[in-house]
Specification:
single chain, 138 residues, mainly alpha, two-stranded antiparallel ribbon, 4 strands, extended
């Protein structure tokens, strides 16, 4: 067993993914950055509201609610961006190519003779009806 933060990972998984430690560190950094953004964003929003409170008075519970909402939104944006960077980093460490390179290579690398013909596609995949929620309807 290999320790990965607070979790233990099987040796076979750690051997299969040698970059797992770097990816976990990147994700941890992204989440800590999100927490810092929440605290800084909430504090800044609360301070701005206190300055504006003289011209636009409202209760302290609304100031706290708006500050928390602003901090949450800022935290979400930062954490999502940082997590996407970590995902791209993971793909690069596993494949040696960036996701953009893989997307470009993936679309152009399929020769036409390997693709199924329209007749094969029609016979291989029966029509499936779905409702507006994406559930299969019989």
């Amino acid at each position: 067993m290999v320790n990965l933060g607070l979790r233990r990972v099987e040796d076979s998984v750690a051997a299969k993914h040698p970059a797992l430690q770097q990816y976990a560190a990147c994700q941890s950094h992204a989440f800590m950055k999100g927490i810092g953004t929440f605290l800084a964003g909430s504090g800044a929003a609360f301070a701005v509201q206190k300055l504006v409170n003289k011209k636009l008075p409202y209760g302290p519970q609304w100031s706290l609610l708006l500050a928390a909402a602003a901090g949450s939104l800022a935290s979400y944006v930062v954490t999502r961006a940082e997590t996407q960077k970590c995902s791209d980093f993971w793909i690069y460490l596993e494949t040696g190519k960036s996701p953009q390179e893989l997307a470009m290579a993936g679309g152009a690398s399929e020769p036409a003779e390997n693709l199924p013909s329209p007749e094969d596609r029609a016979s291989a995949a029966p029509l499936v009806r779905r409702n507006k929620y994406g559930d299969v309807v019989e």
